[in-house]
Amino acid sequence: LKIIRHSKDGISLLELLIYIAVFSVLMLAVTGLFTMVLRSRSVAHARFEVNDALRVILQSLQTSLDGSDTFMLNGSCPLNRVTIQSGSTAVVYHVASGALMRTEDGNPSDQITSGLVLVDSIDSVTCMFARVDNSPPSRPVLGFKMRVRYNDQGKPELKFEDMIQTSVSLR
């Protein structure tokens, strides 16, 4: 009795094509998943930057207004300026090239917002800073309305913006 054994020294061309097809489908799925994760991360980063900028703006304005004596509005709407006077110190807030700037006593301006966000008025009519009229003997109240947008650089999936609209009374 003779036993015939068939041994394979390699794989057939058909098996190789099947392996390549299965591997290609798996790699396509992994690439799609990876792209989706990167896009979600970018959107989350845009939201974080806008929310962080809003927090920093509000905190900076409130700090400047705490203990201040008066404020003056200058410039034309919608991108007007506010000068906050506290004793002999004058702090000016204004927008330059989409960034909120803070100038203290004429020193070079500090950029309050990062280059990743753009600050502007909520529309083409509304002033960013305005005096809120209350009946005497109430203290002067500064109202501010501004929009903070992520600098999406033409990428529609990163288009995100939020607004801040509040008022703070001098103490």
Overview of this structure, please?
- The chain has 171 residues and is α+β, with helices and mostly antiparallel strands.
- The longest helix has 53 residues, at 13-65.
- The protein is built from one helix and nine strands; from the N terminus they run αβββββββββ.
- A hairpin with a 5-residue loop joins strand 4 and strand 5 (110-111).
- The protein is rod-shaped and about 115 Å long.
- Helix content is 31%, strand content 32%.
- The strands form two sheets. It has a five-stranded antiparallel sheet with strand order 1-2-3-4-5, covered by helices on one side. Strands 6, 7, 8 and 9 form a four-stranded antiparallel sheet that branches.
Short description, anyone?
The chain is α+β, with helices and mostly antiparallel strands and 171 residues long.
Keywords:
4-stranded antiparallel beta sheet, 1 helix, 171 residues, rod-shaped, 32% strand, 9 strands, alpha+beta
List the helices and strands and how they pair.
Blueprint: H1 13-65, E1 70-74, E2 81-86, E3 89-96, E4 99-104, E5 110-111, E6 117-120, E7 129-132, E8 141-150, E9 161-169
Antiparallel strand pairs: 1-2, 2-3, 3-4, 4-5, 6-8, 7-8, 8-9
Number of strands: 9
Q: Sum up the overall morphology in one term.
A: rod-shaped
As residue ranges, the low-confidence spans are none
Question: How many distinct helices?
Answer: 1
User: Which range best describes the helical content: under 10%, 10-25%, 25-40%, 40-55%, 55-70% or over 70%?
Assistant: 25-40%
